[in-house]
Amino acid sequence: MRDTHPHPVGAMDQDSxxxxxxxxxxxxxxxxxxxxxxxxxxxxxxxxxxxxxNSTNLGQILPIEAGKPAKTAKMGKKPAGATTxxxxxxRDSKNSDNRNKSRQIPFNILIVAQSGRLExxxxxxxxxxxxxxxxxxxxxxxxxxQEDGAWSGHKTQISAESRTxxxxxxxxxxxxxxxxxxxxxxxxxxxxxxxLLPPGENFIFFDTDTLITGPxxxxxxxxxxxxxxxxxxxxxxxxxxxGPGYGEIWRSLYDRFGLDYASSLDLxxxxxxxxxxxxxxxxxxxxxxxxxxxxxxxxxxxxVRDDPGEALASQSLDPWLDQIVLPLVIHSxxxxxxxxxxxxLDGDVTCHWRNLPLLYARESDAAVDAMERAANAPxxxxxxxxxxxxxxxxxxxxxxxxxRPAIDRDHLPLRERALRQDIKRAGWWVV
Length: 431
Known about the structure:
Blueprint: H1 19-56, H2 58-61, H3 85-103, E1 108-112, H4 117-132, E2 140-145, H5 160-168, E3 171-176, H6 189-192, E4 203-206, E5 210-212, E6 227-229, H7 246-256, E7 281-287, H8 290-306, H9 321-332, E8 350-352, H10 356-362, H11 365-375, H12 381-384, H13 388-395, H14 398-406, H15 416-426
Parallel strand pairs: 1-2, 1-4, 2-3
Antiparallel strand pairs: 4-7, 5-8, 6-7
Helix pairs in contact: 4-5, 4-11, 8-9, 10-14, 13-14
């Protein structure tokens, strides 16, 4: 260590009776300085490791308050633990790699298609998936209910032309026999078809009336936390005037399956308001293991269907059964409402269009463009020209030139039912 109290200039140059002692002092100082230099050299060798450790923990040492910029060091000074530019670049690159890896987690997609409208929608789904998410590398599995079991007596087989178009886009058409729902409750297809997916592999289910409008593979899914679409209305339950309310109805279901009801609530919503309760549109949902998810979905849906319980005595289960049970399954598997990481679903990555009149009436220009480009693919157009909604709204251009201008998309009704009435009055409810 440097002497912080130097002698006055020339003080040690003067002869005196203490000259011998002064020489001894000088020798001692020289020895001490040599020892100090040795310690400094050893410390210098250890500093890079210490700096690396400090830089790793910098975020903990100097937390950034929400809404406030991070503090920076003054010019010419470097705070303890600060990294060099090259070290920072290396760390940022590593973090970027980690983010990219999270976005590249493989997953399979399941849709259900059968004869008629669903096979047309399935072809459009497959075309928009390949066109707008070209880097996605998972399996597209198309579940096809067979004409037996719960679908016995009904035509379900996909046409040869649609089958060829789907397979040309990499789809795997997998048959299954519905045992529990079938024609009596077609929405149950999505529950039973989950058994077709490879167990233990991440999955997303989509309704066929969905367009892929952006890079689905870039969505930062956390498959360990399942979730589903929040593009829904308060369709269920409908509490009677003098009966159980929202809370009592939903609590009865959570209690029945041993679930924590309180932790499912959105406490930002008023008591006895439908949005306070976990409720999804089943147009898409995802999870980490379709075998576990699907078996629970099936078991609980059958239990509710076969024995609704006293609190549900006044409630209709058709067509809402899948959406009643879905939040229970998701909550039981540690999931909940979707976070901002998957905002692209029902946003700029997917569009649940429902039917062609609603697509033209309310969806974005990008969604309409994706639909029309898919529908005009050389091998798809011949398939859809015989489907009246496509013929009148897409190929005769009435959707873009007549229906779309007739609807004020800046002031859409809050409820879909009202929008449907507007479309009907305009003369374009073609489904």
